[in-house]
Amino acid sequence: MMSSNNKLTAKLMIQGTSSSVGKSVLAAAFCRIFYQEGYHVSPFKAQNMALNSFVTAAGGEMGRAQVVQAQAAGVEPEVRMNPILLKPSGPTGSQVVIMGKSQGNVTALRYHGEYQRMTWPYVTEALHGLLNEYEIVVIEGAGSPAEVNLKSNDIVNMRVAMEAASPVLLVADIDRGGALASVVGTLELVEPEERAMIKGIIFNKFRGEIKLLQPALDFIEKKTGIPVVGVVPYFKIRIPDEDSVALSEADERPTVSLTEQLDIAVIRLPYISNFTDFDALQDEPDVSVRYVTDPANLGKPDLVIIPGSKNTLADLRFLHESGIGNNILTLCTEEIPVIGICGGYQMMGRLVKDPLHTESELEEVAGLGILPMVTEFYPQKHTVQSKGTILTDRGFFKACTGETVVGYEIHMGRSTLDEGHLPLFNLTSNGESNLDGLQAGNSYGSYLHGIFDNDSLRASLLNWLWERRGSKRPVEASLSQAALRESAFNELADLVRQNVDLERIRAIMGIRADS
Questions:
Q1: Total domain count for the chain?
Q2: Which branch of life, at top level (predicted)?
Q3: Which of 44, 138, 373, 499 could form a disulfide with 349 if both were Cys (CB 3.0 to 4.6 A apart)?
Q4: How far apart are the C-alpha atoms of 441 and 241, rounded to whole Å?
Q5: CATH number of the domain that 444 lies in?
Q6: 308: three-class secondary structure by DSSP
Q7: 3-state class of 324 per DSSP?
Q8: Which of 342, 400, 411, 421 is flagged as catalytic?
Q9: Type and span of the H or E element at 503
Q10: How do residues 469-482 score in pLDDT, each as one tens digit?
């Protein structure tokens, strides 16, 4: 039952007929639309399964999708917006993060039972807290509400809709085909009281002439008795993706002339995390970012990046066994720059140790030996937002020495540098200072996520890479990441406004025209 102490808050829940139908992006669009209309808006998703996470100002860890939605709503992200986060760490298990704090690894079988039921009070407390404090809460579901094998322990779809007394918009991906059947099938499989919560249908990712679709829209309304409140066209607006399902292996090989763009190869690790670190590079017109799994496709790029990982030792073993590690070492001898972020930084050292099995069953794996350091894992996770100063004046940092750098850290490993080696940054987190990062030749590593979002540092890196080619960077200037993000949110809001019946959606939410 809905808590009686909630003030009158408007709610809207976005559920889907399956995963990857566009729920996260549409929720972000509605957050921005209502923010533009002057409302105090919060996103909410009870449980997220993703490897892209973020650290709040208070040091809590949460899913990246709700961070993006909070930014679209013009509010500071906080863990109540995503009280339960599952970070897959193996084929059958995940690290469980509750209200921003890691609770360790749990198998899927154990989680989808008593453990999941135990998390429900955290969900309801966070949900009602937001409902009490905001004028509008935009709620996102997960997967499909019709997954009957998981329904008895549901804490993210219809149970949340019922708890919040929130109307639901059901979203289907019409680009996939079978969208009409998926809508009808979903409505058939949910309980009658749940079906009554679904007040509108949105078809997403439409390509083509809307007049040709109209007979299908008429049919679905007649068949279900539920109005179609929008047909959103397929679009390519840069909104950070929730998880690695968005990464295409088809992009492994360079697709443009090297005279036009820099070729940056990011190693697509099996447990890659926080690949949103590289969105800022992808936004640059003179940069091509590709994700590589096959050593034959690595080639000789301008820069290799080893990203973060949810299972550093397993991914390090993948580098050794796949042959990509040897390819990276060969590129190092040819002075091709390599940058490691967080887990990638750890892999570049001599050795990674996990004696307490905090992350995997492996106890230690030899590193790539690129950077002179050793990493050991500890049970307590380090999750902080960090800000500091660039110390080094070598390599691409020469143009930005002494400048400010900001980002966030999420790691359980601690790296010890060999004696006599200087760090890259002096960082401050929660009032405490610490040194971070390491350089050896043209290879660099750091625990700092979001490092490329620093506009000056990113520009220094790209200018340096062009200079290494004996060329001048062809782009005079690029917009800041903050400006690009705001532009993307506004573009997304405009697109959705034009293609959904907002007046009807407001009525569904109980928002009066004069409110």
A1: 2
A2: Bacteria
A3: 373
A4: 33
A5: 3.40.50.880
A6: strand
A7: helix
A8: 342
A9: helix 502-509
A10: 999 998 766 778 88
Identity of the residue numbered 91: P
Q: Report yes or no on whether pTM surpasses 0.70.
A: yes
CATH of residue 494's domain is 3.40.50.300
Percentage of residues in the chain having pLDDT higher than 90: 72
320 annotated active-site? no
Q: Which of 112-126, 166-180, 351-365, 419-433 tops mean pLDDT? A: 166-180
Residue 248 lies in a domain: no
| 436-439: long-range contacts, CB 8 A cutoff, minimum separation 24 | 436/386, 436/388, 437/345, 437/392, 438/345, 438/371, 438/372, 438/373, 439/371, 439/392, 439/394, 439/395
Pairing outcome for strands 443-446 and 438-440: antiparallel
Active site residue 449: yes
276 with 360, same domain: the answer is yes
Decide if 244 is inside a domain.
Answer: no
Q: How much is the pLDDT for 243?
A: 54
The strand pairing partners of 383, in sequence order, are 410
The answer to whether 484 touches 20, Cβ cutoff 8 Å, is no
Q: How confident is the model at residue 109 (pLDDT cuts 50, 70, 90)?
A: low
pLDDT in tens, 276-311: 999 999 999 999 999 999 999 999 999 999 999 989
